[in-house]
Amino acid sequence: xxxxxxxxxxxxxxxxxxxxxxxxxxxxxxxxxxxxxxxxxxxxxxxxxxxxxxxxxxxxxxxxxxxxxxxxxxxxxxxxxxxxxxxxxxxxxxxxxxxxxxxxxxxxxxxxxxxxxxxxxxxxxxxxxxxxxxxxxxxxxxxxxxxxxxxxxxxxxxxxxxxxxxxxxxxxxxxxxxxxxxxxxxxxxxxxxxxxxxxxxxxxxxxxxxxxxxxxxxxxxxxxxxxxxxxxxxxxxxxxxxxxxxxxxxxxxxxxxxxxxxxxxxxxxxxxxxxxxxxxxxxxxxxxxxxxxxxxxxxxxxxxxxxxxxxxxxxxxxxxxxxxxxxxxxxxxxxxxxxxxxxxxxxxxxxxxxxxxxxxxxxxxxxxxxxxxxxxxxxxxxxxxxxxxxxxxxxx
Length: 396
Prior knowledge:
Blueprint: E1 6-10, H1 16-19, E2 24-26, E3 30-32, E4 42-46, E5 52-58, E6 63-69, H2 77-93, E7 103-108, E8 117-122, E9 125-130, H3 133-137, H4 139-147, E10 156-159, E11 176-179, E12 186-189, E13 192-195, H5 211-220, E14 225-229, H6 235-242, E15 247-252, H7 255-269, E16 275-279, H8 282-288, E17 296-299, H9 311-328, E18 333-339, H10 346-360, E19 364-371, E20 389-395
Parallel strand pairs: 1-4, 9-10, 14-15, 14-17, 15-16, 17-18
Antiparallel strand pairs: 1-3, 2-6, 4-5, 5-6, 7-8, 8-9, 10-11, 12-13, 18-20, 19-20
């Protein structure tokens, strides 16, 4: 017997975006709803005429409902098991689950039809992040479904949502294991090993979204002098060394990140690797950097714009950062430059980098235009899910 959920009725004409399968209902589209609806509840969304448009998680804020289905279904353990099974099947079809690769994103929110949920897998541990109260309340159902996924080999589920849930929801989430416990933190990506700090590190502990771009960097690294700015756990540094770089230097403002980078370099190449690391501000390092010291540079900063109000300042930041790097690079250099700010479009980022090139007077050619990998899929009806953009430039 299908469960009955509280109904949220939309204003006249506001059902059109849902009929085009966009997964969000904005608060301004709502005509009426029961006073009994609480944040995180599953609700049924209906049109002005009462037509069922689907079910989703309600929350207070601009995005009022994150849609889970365009039909009236029961949102229960079987629902989560089914969606997670579909997500795992896609990753297996992509060839990501191998002996030499056990780090991947299993759930990418709207891209896997589970808006508000992120799940990254590192070996036998799944790290779960809820970005909506509804997913927070469903965390135990999700954890149970994860460890029961056939062939996934997940034994531990770590919940890490203290910094991702809406602050005003007052949910007081605790980062902790829902199932299992800590049994090691070394993950394997394309045959390379990485310590992943999901307990205290950023995001889920490792940026799996740069996997394909790291491998591309490896192919450009032979014989080059590589600078990895904003290195975090040193992913690009490890790949550059594996690709035969003459030397690799890593920079991050966090001493903790530098320690993790050095540990990952040692894990793969021992004590004798041609690698040095500095905990220093990126702009200061670039300003003090000798001319022509590096002929392959990676700029992978944290999000400069976390909301639309910060776009103008963020674009100035990208321009300044790229200009400082370009003006110090010798002829024939390669620059990998990225933006992970969802609020910044591909066109805006490209214009900021173009402005940096024009400012320095360098001749610059685009070799590749980069994005997030296939385990971070973009729902075609939700283009907002495309957040990572990058350029590989040849500097003359």
